[in-house]
Amino acid sequence: MVAGDEPLSFPRQQARTRRFSLGVPRSFTVSPDGARVLFLRSGAGDDPVTALWCLSTADGAEHEVAAPALLVPSGADDLPPEERARRERARELAAGIVTYACDRAVEHAAFALDGRLWWADVRLGGPSGPPRQLPSPPGVFGPRPSPDGTRVAFLSEGRLCTVPTEGGSEWTVLAAEAGGARWGEAEFIAAEEMGRMRGFWWSPTSASLLAARVDEGPVATWWTSDPARPSVAPTSRRYPVAGSADADVTLWHLAPERPAERTELRWDRDRYPYLVDVNWGPGGPALLLVERRDHKACLVLAADPVTGRTTEVASMASDHWVGWPQGVPAWLGDGRLLWAAADEGTWRLTVDGQPVTPPGLQVRAVTAVGSSVLFTASQEPEVVEVWEWSPGTGLAPLTECGGVSTAFGDGPVRVVVSRSMDWPGDRVEVRAPGRPALPVRNLGHEPPFRPEVRMMRAGPRGSSAGVVLPRGHRGGKLPVIMAPYGGPSHQSVMAARALWLEAQWTADQGFAVVVVDGRGTPGRGPAWEHAVYRDLARPVLDDQVEALRAVAAEVPELDLSRVGIKGWSFGGYLAALAVLARPDVFHAAIAGAPVTDWRFYDTYYTERYMGLPSEEAEAYERTSLLALAPGLRRPLMLVHGLADDNVYAVHTLELSRALFMAGRPHSVLPLPGVTHVAGAADVTENLLLLGVEFMRRALASPEPLS
After folding, report:
1. Which of 65, 292, 410, 411 could lock onto 52 through a cystine, CB 3.0 to 4.6 A?
2. H or E element: which one contains 505?
3. pLDDT tens readout for residues 56-83
């Protein structure tokens, strides 16, 4: 802020800082020798351009490895459309260098900037100088160096290419098909729903790669357009809507030195069409994780890339759907298989089929596998700590901050990131045996206030709930805004103060804000998550209602005669469902980017919980909002980005049409050019302001139901 300027409002700060994420270090890589740590960070809390940094673990000194402004002085970043799509899938809010990849020794790093390929030397005390551009075609994205650092593989316009890092002036195409399948990419559902953001993997010897061949020919074409710019042609995308055909994904073994030789890896793709993950490390054969379309079984396969044969080494089955922590399967250093099981009400880690984590410790994600295993886990759903397991010493906690932590590094040097309810609550430090912890500088802006959150268990099932009142409030009834996500795969009630900033600001405008994680949300084990099987509506909404009433019994300031609800994505679905199905409880709703009929959403997510539309027609009908439209009796605002290619605007338009045809008044706020992320500063700011004003008017004096 320039001296003399007026202090920025919280909505403006929230927007300019990308929810206070800018300037915060992230994306850590620890070198095997423990000498250095690479990470990404922008230069300030309002600087959206991220650079690549290196920290020396000997003294904590940091230096900037690659600054986008120096590499591309014009400031332009000509992103290929594939990279724009990848960033949308990753919910990336920053610009500049937002991903990078290293060789095995972490002596060099490759990244894409302005659609070009760059190579940086990150050795401390070694050869220095700015990153250099490697030969490549335009439109580069997703580069990854070979483990020995002699080549970089990258993607461009559906082609998988490689280029030597020294002594070569030409890049070569390893796999491509004119006008056909794309090589080395993650298809839509892999990136959006499976968590697989890549489509090629180097061998440990650097001699060859495994690469996905993605044929989207069978997938339906959907379109987005910008009505505010009628001169611009609509954009087409392949979108596998529930019940329709998915992309045909196969996996191939390719060798840069022998590009004509290709071997397809074979498994029963008719029964297990989903390639969920690939792990090709030095501990054993390449591992494939494949899944049935009905999500009730998956296989872990060991692959021989030379012959293409695969062998089952583990499996999982469920009457509902299978699940596992991120980061598995993997080989341990001693050749045993690290995998997972849903056992005794707990997501547990297993080694060669035997559990190594106890009942009650819900494993979230494996973050490093080396001489030991680092993973995150919860004993209480609001708290995520880092744990370590090793064959010699067994299980031990690595953090005890009582908040949300994670860690990186497969050797003795680790980066530990912790967020808690303490103030300021965010800490990033490098830990090494026998040395004091080294902080990694956080250049983010400090939020202007400290959220005051009361957490509790609410309702007959003990749903996690957080309550935020206006700071300094001293009694008196307050209108209520519930602000859930409420659906599978995401939690909102977590012990990290940064997650409660928006709730506190909203409360300070004269509301009590209540956030509830009911059945279906992570952190409480398989049975809790499976409770929404074939019904994403009734149990989810029931838990919100029951928790609200239980919270009100503990917090008398809540005025249950004035209750609004708002949410985005699944939270938008839940908000619209609440005001349509339970107008006796909810008096107004803001539904942002809502799914309104699960038949319009993608295959992988929807069918996991709902099944195929052709087989579960009643479940789809029961959870659709369209049939409920004639019953609207409360104020409802629908908000949708018209460029959203995840939850397409058809959802809001179809619900609006159903409401209109039923003669039910409602509001629609279309956002031209805005995607599902809705991360632009002006959009973020004004959505906050308009949302509060809508709720203030709607809850001032709700009309009784007729």
Report:
1. 65
2. helix 501-508
3. 999 999 999 999 999 998 777 789 999 9
Burial class of 175 by CB neighbour count within 10 A (0 to 12, 13 to 18, 19+): buried
> Are the C-beta atoms of residues 515 and 501 closer than 8 Å to each other?
no
The share of the chain scoring above pLDDT 70, in percent, equals 98
pLDDT tens column, 75-113: 777 899 999 999 999 999 999 999 999 999 999 999 999
Structure tokens at 107: 């002596």
Distance of CA 282 to the CA centre of its chain: 27
Instruction: Please count the residues of the chain.
Output: 706
* Domains present along the chain, CATH in parentheses: 453-698 (3.40.50.1820)
Token pair for 599: 């038949």
Instruction: Name 69's Cβ contacts closer than 8 Å, sequence gap at least 6.
Output: 49, 75
Q: Are 338 and 369 in contact (CB under 8 A)?
A: yes
Bridge partner residues of 36 (DSSP)? 56
CA distances from residue 120 to 43, 109, 483 in whole angstroms, order as listed: 19, 5, 44
Helix (H, G, I), strand (E, B) or coil at 678: coil
Structure tokens at 275: 């390639």
338 neighbors 331 (Cβ within 8 angstroms): yes
Coil, strand or helix at 450: coil
State the chain's mean pLDDT as an integer.
Answer: 95
